[in-house]
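Narrative progress, year one. The postdoctoral researcher (J.K.) led the effort to move from monomer predictions toward full complexes, under supervision of the PI. The following entry was the first complex the group processed end to end, covering 224 residues in total.
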Amino acid sequence: EAEVAQSPRYKITEKSQAVAFWCDPISGHATLYWYRQILGQGPELLVQFQDESVVDDSQLPKDRFSAERLKGVDSTLKIQPAELGDSAMYLCASSTQYNEQFFGPGTRLTVL
Amino acid sequence: GENVEQHPSTLSVQEGDSAVIKCTYSDSASNYFPWYKQELGKRPQLIIDIRSNVGEKKDQRIAVTLNKTAKHFSLHITETQPEDSAVYFCAASAANAGKSTFGDGTTLTVKP
């Protein structure tokens, strides 16, 4: 069964450093999402792509976060510089045209 | 934007009992309502969903009901088992827009 892939699974960094996360969606899924999940809360959408275009990045802190999906397949989320408050689980998901979202295993980020 | 409230935040039941989790949403344009199960340290997994043209949907021991007029939907789990213990998230989104707003989750504990 096809799954969304993410790497790395865990990342520890010091504040002010740059970090990058990678996501490979399920083949054929045109829509890709990046979420941030803080412990005890539901996932919060950071950015949504339709193919290579951003369709929603209203909750993305654009002064330090960036995301791209250049060829409309895999995607990278970057944080520069990382802050203590960025410690969270970063989840990638992809969906069919019918909105059914499938999540990757996530990247657990710890900023020291 | 959409606002989703989920109750209760924690729920403890005896094995074999039923469990009900409720969510309310604010945006009348929302018409897709999925439920996700997230076990500790794992990715959220879609367990059931409902669209606004349907009032109820069942899949074995789980069911979801939707009241569009009142803007609320509920997850029902019957004959609970210890392996049902997890965090459950509801979400709401508008068709084709894809953006899902999640509730804050319900931690379900099923006691053997």
